[in-house]
Design a protein that fits this description.
The complex is a heterodimer of chains A (about 150) and B (about 475). Chain A is α/β, with parallel strands linked by helices. Chain A has a single domain, classed as Rossmann fold (3-Layer(aba) Sandwich). Helices cover about 30% and strands about 20% of the residues of chain A. Chain A is built from five helices and five strands. Chain A has helices at about 20-30, 45-50, 75-80, 95-105, 130-150, and strands at about 5-10, 35-40, 55-60, 70-75, 110-120. Chain B is α+β, with helices and mostly antiparallel strands. Chain B folds into three domains: about 5-40 and about 430-485, no CATH class; about 95-220 and about 335-360, no CATH class; about 225-335, no CATH class. Chain B has helices at about 40-45, 55, 65-80, 85-120, 130-135, 140-160, 180-210, 210-220, 265, 305-310, 315-330, 340-360, 410-415, 415-430, 440-445; strands spanning about 5-10, 20-25, 30-35, 170, 175, 230-235, 245-250, 255-260, 270, 280-285, 300, 380-385, 390-400, 405-410, 470-475, 480-485. Chain B has a five-stranded antiparallel beta sheet with strand order 3-2-1-15-16, with helices on one face. A four-stranded mixed beta sheet of chain B has the order 8-7-6-11, with helices on one face. In chain B, strands 12-13-14 form a three-stranded antiparallel beta sheet. Chain B is globular and about 70 Å long. The chains are: A alpha/beta (about 150), B alpha+beta (about 475). Chains A and B meet through helix 2, strand 3 and helix 4 of A and helix 1, helix 4, helix 5 and helix 6 of B.
């Protein structure tokens, strides 16, 4: 049996930043054949959670400013593979952390799907999402369920 | 025409901290600033919540230093309830806190600051990262770093419930005792951590101190500021991360103030600049005199080198010997060399490891007496700890039911905000000449703030990892002249 991890990332008290966690919590309701975890951290502090899984589905907030809040982006791991610089001054990027752990011989997921949800506000302390992002949570959870855990009948 | 350069070290979100460099008509750096927008509304978020929830809420402010916020909030809640933790609870808190300092500092040295030293500042950017560091120190050392971090994180996880969002601290104590079996297991790990700290000092000796070019950078004037320093010291004026008195020394090393956490407002005031949301704390008795160093400017620094400067010594013997060696090489105490924050960080790694060993050798740490139940009416309290990146102050007021009515935080990085801007400006002025701004020079400007290990409350953000560092050249009207993407 392949081990699958759905990981919602973000900060649940920083407005839309927590949308990845909100979606992960909704996915938990569906009794999917996966572990569903949430984390408010980045880089090396997250990668410990991922070791040992065969497949990873990552859900996080994104702010490109180019599309409407609530829009779903799909990324592949390769989209980030060139990002070897530090993404913040005090931690390394998750993708850099992956590369290190691979080189050190750790077992990391072979299949990685990355969903990014466009957000509007990530600098106000609040447990509420902004309206457009809140309205998208259910739909996005259903899309991820359908794409990542299709019916097997 | 004057130009503006922006170094934008952000992930996916706008405005989480950038370096603005203004050039004059000749292409020399006129001035430079670090901008760190503050997150909004935490005070309102906290008001109306039970104070005992604060140790679980505040770690979410920042995914980088959750343990520091957890412990500052727990200590503030102790003070609000007027309760002192039991001896055992204090030992357990100190144990996890030293484990956190160890782990956080190791991450910084090898993964964040290390690339500047171990790989060289001017190396191609594709090598100037942790993979480059592992390439230099060897894959086995890489394994050792990862292995020791895991052990210290496991200690924290065991005692605090969770590593990223700890829940173990309660007003008057902690939620979980340590078993004898775990004490023995963790003592072995703490000894591993101590051996690792010796190895790390050796890496610093071999890679940095053996290289004259690096030593010149460390002791040179580009990365040097004579400022006041602030940090916690114990009753004997030794470095303490978990608890103590706030001590301030002047640029000559003389004690200028020594006070307890609840008096912080008598000593610290905050300056505001129109170009930044971040506040600039300064020493009230000296006053704000702009972004200047020296004894007449109230700007002070916190974090590893500051802690070593304010203390009479380290609290543990091996770290003390290393600190003496560092000050001797740097030409005396206090040391004003910003890049020596990296060195001081490794000495603190050693003290943290020695402290873990000492705490775990004490069999009484397994006592079940882990909490004093609060019995007084809650009111107001201040909790202070040394976060990895400097003095962290939580100040709460509550009503008679322990419901929050006011909240003020001075976070570690903010204490260093003036110094970081000053350090960046000095480096940029020395390094940028005639409009020549290549990648190596920009990295050397960034090197002026990395020693402070700044936390910009943005660590929760991950996507997209590909967002590059952006350097914008603008004219005086803010028009974009050139954009350099550093991916």
């Amino acid at each position: 049996m392949k081990r699958v991890l759905v990981l919602g990332l973000g900060n649940p008290i920083l407005s839309d930043d927590g949308v990845g966690i909100r979606v992960a919590r909704r996915l938990r309701d569906f009794n999917l054949p996966a572990d569903i975890l949430e984390a408010s951290a980045a880089g090396f502090r997250v990668v410990d959670e991922i070791i040992g899984y065969d497949r990873l589905v990552l859900v996080d907030a994104v702010m490109t400013g180019r599309v409407a809040p609530g829009t779903l982006h799909r990324f592949s791991f390769d989209d980030f593979s060139r990002a070897l610089h530090n993404t913040s001054p005090h931690d390394i990027s998750l993708f850099q952390a992956f590369e290190i752990m691979r080189r050190e011989g750790e077992k990391l997921p072979e299949t990685i799907a990355i969903y990014g949800i466009e957000i509007a506000d990530s600098s106000t302390f609040s447990e509420e999402l902004t309206p457009a992002v809140e309205a998208a949570v259910e739909h996005i959870a259903q899309v991820i369920r359908r794409e990542q855990f299709p019916p097997t009948d | 025409m004057a130009k503006k350069i922006t170094i934008d070290p952000i992930t996916r979100l706008e405005g989480h901290g950038k370096i603005e460099i203004f050039l004059d008509d000749d292409g020399n750096c006129k001035n430079a600033y670090l901008q760190i927008p503050e997150l909004k509304g935490f005070e309102q978020f906290a008001i109306g919540r039970p104070v005992e929830e604060m140790p679980r809420i505040t770690p979410r402010i920042c995914g980088v230093c959750p343990m520091a916020h957890h412990m500052a909030a727990t200590k503030a809640a102790d003070a609000v309830y007027g309760v002192t933790p039991t001896d055992t609870a204090r030992k357990l808190r100190e144990l996890v806190y030293n484990a956190y300092i160890f782990e956080d500092h190791v991450l910084h040295f090898y993964f964040l600051g290390g690339p500047d030293f171990v790989v060289t500042p001017q190396a191609p950017k594709a090598e100037r990262n942790i993979l480059g560091v592992i390439g230099k120190v060897g894959i086995e050392m890489g394994k050792t770093v990862i292995g020791i971090r895991k052990k210290t994180r496991d200690i924290v996880t065991h005692l605090m419930g969770r590593i990223i969002h700890p829940v173990g601290g309660l007003p008057g104590g902690v939620s979980k005792p340590l078993s004898e079996e775990k004490r023995v297991e963790f003592l072995a790990w703490a000894n591993d951590a101590l051996e690792f700290s010796k190895l790390s000092i050796q890496v610093f000796n071999d890679v940095v101190l053996a290289n004259n070019a690096y030593v010149d950078l460390v002791v040179g004037d580009i990365y040097k500021h004579e400022t006041y320093y602030m940090g916690l010291v114990d009753d004997n004026n030794k470095v303490n991360f978990y608890d103590g008195h706030i001590r301030v020394v002047d640029p000559s090393g003389k004690e200028m103030a020594r006070f307890d956490g609840q008096d912080y407002l008598k000593h610290i005031a905050e300056h505001v600049e129109p170009w930044s949301y971040m506040k600039f704390p300064f020493l009230r008795d000296i006053g704000w005199h702009g972004f200047e160093d020296g004894p007449d400017s109230g700007i002070y620094r916190v974090a590893p080198l500051a802690r070593l400067n304010v203390a009479d010594g380290m609290a543990t013997p091996l770290a003390q010997a290393e600190a003496e060696r560092m000050f001797e090489i740097l030409g005396g105490k206090p040391a004003h060399n910003t890049l020596a924050f990296h060195w001081a960080r490794l000495i603190e790694v050693m003290q943290a490891a020695e402290a873990m060993v000492r705490l775990l050798e004490d069999e009484s740490i397994t006592s079940p007496d882990i909490r004093n139940i609060p019995t007084t009416t809650p009111s107001e309290g201040v909790g202070v700890v040394e976060a990895a990146r400097g003095t962290l102050i939580h100040h709460y007021k509550t009503d008679d039911n322990g419901i929050m009515t006011a909240c003020n935080l001075i976070v570690a990085t903010v204490n260093n905000s003036s110094a970081m801007s000053m350090s960046i400006a000095k480096a940029a002025k020395r390094l940028i000449r005639d409009g020549k701004v290549d990648d190596g020079i920009l990295n050397m400007v960034e090197m002026a703030f990395r020693p402070y290990d700044p936390c910009m409350a943005c660590a929760c953000h991950t996507l997209p990892g590909r967002m590059p560092l952006v350097v914008n050249l603008r004219d005086t009207q803010g028009n974009l002249l050139r954009e350099v993407r550093r991916d």
